[in-house]
Amino acid sequence: MKKIGVLHGKERSFPMAFVERINSKNISGIVAEPVRIDKAIQGEPTGYAVIIDRISQDVPFYRTWLKNEALTGTAVINNPFWWSADDKYFNNCLMTKVGVPIPKTAIIPSRDHPDDTTEESFSNLAYPMDWETIFKYVGFPAYMKPFAGGGWKHVYKLDSKEDFFDKHSETGQLVMLLQEEIVFTEYYRCYCIGRKHVRIMPYEPRNPHHLRYVASFTPSPERLKQMEEIVLRICNYLGYDFNTVELAIRDGVPYAIDFCNPAPDAERSSVGEENFAWVVETAANYAIERAMEQKAGQDNLTWGEYVKKGANKSSLV
């Protein structure tokens, strides 16, 4: 019997529907359940062929436990080693090399010294930074947000350099991105599962959270194809099998605004019934596919093109 587990926190609608959908298919040798951990012993498998990870970004114990699962043969979705290594700034840098349009972005050192550091720890960092060049490159208005993490936490809209310094003084030890504002005419949030299944959803980030999927954008077939190709390129280079990509359309060009969401919102109450049904069915089918392919005791992780090409010492393009 091959077990498919879902590791989750307070989230309920997607994990329970995912488990029920798999079990309702009555596939011989496949069963799904919420993950249960009653001990963690190094180098020992716990019997899961596949685990969908929805929470380890917030729970360090789960993240390291998942790495042992991967080591002992579980197909963990998403790859916990890559998810531990990437960040929004690196991902933006990678997109500049693989032809994905992105906003102009600079990384900003933390306002306060990290714990256990002093001024001497920053001997290689110029002070002051070349702010004029940075501001000229990014322009105003701009957005400032943490280089890691998500959930619209600590996000600032800035109208001037004075505004920047005022808001930056509130960010403490957070390392921040300063990013060009993309004034868009259309906006889309796109699920991508298995690096092959894409659902493009009109999305209005300026609405209250519960109304963001209430949007009337109507992309042409050509625009849909263009966005699907961008989403697949992003997820294939990063190696994420469960992700959302946000695309803002400016002057006919889809800019990737936020594309590192490996535990994306899948709550029925926020994404809506049709999108919820799609993500449950598609995730269930993909998890079953990975379970059938899984080989006990071997590496069953997905690795993105960036890592694979680096391992082969070849260029990105």
Topology:
Elements: E1 2-7, H1 13-24, E2 30-34, E3 48-53, H2 60-71, E4 75-77, H3 80-85, H4 88-98, E5 105-108, H5 131-138, E6 142-146, E7 156-158, H6 161-168, E8 176-180, E9 186-193, E10 197-202, H7 221-238, E11 242-250, E12 253-258, H8 268-271, H9 273-293, H10 305-311
The stretches of 5 or more residues where confidence is low (pLDDT under 50) are none
Count of alpha/pi helices: 10
- Helix-strand topology string: EHEEHEHHEHEEHEEEHEEHHH
End-to-end distance: 42 Å
Q: Radius of gyration, Cα only, in angstroms? A: 21 Å
What is the average per-residue confidence, as pLDDT, rounded to a whole number? Answer: 95
Could you tell me the number of beta strands?
A: 12
Shape: globular
Regarding CATH, which class of the domain at 2-84 and 286-304? Alpha Beta
Helix content: 25-40%
Helix/strand-derived class?
A: alpha/beta
The CATH architecture of the domain at 2-84 and 286-304 can be named as 3-Layer(aba) Sandwich
Output the strand order for the largest sheet. 2-1-3-4
| Range of strand content | 15-25%
- The CATH topology of the domain at 2-84 and 286-304 comes to Rossmann fold
The profile of the biggest β sheet is: 4 strands, parallel
